[in-house]
Fold this sequence. Notes:
With 126 residues, the chain is of the alpha/beta class. The chain has 5 helices and 5 strands; from the N terminus they run E-H-E-H-E-H-E-H-E-H.
Amino acid sequence: MKKKNLLLIDQDAFLAGIYGSRLSASGWNVFATESIEQANQLIKKRKIDVVLIDPETIEGALTFFQELRANPKTQDTLLVVLTELGNQKEITEAYQAGADAYLLKGHFVPSEVSKKLSILLEQQSL
Length: 126
């Protein structure tokens, strides 16, 4: 299976490093950025299969999701929230903005996140 490209957007460099290294070890090509601006530059250069973002640390994350959904080049990208925020308001807003999944950092270790993303990609391709 060809490695899938995953874009991890999180300002918490420590957690991004942990998730990035574990996801890479699980077979993903991981590209990490700390801002929407950096993410947009990367998306212009590469096909991204999955965007994994923490809206708690990234301002404009949900608007970014809406922009990706509106763009024919990125509308099929899997959009996943990975955050510590778990109240119903944030979850609802994320799904309304176009999120495909909402994962809580405290409930999923990186290897479980990798498995969940693989399952979501498989379901998306059906």
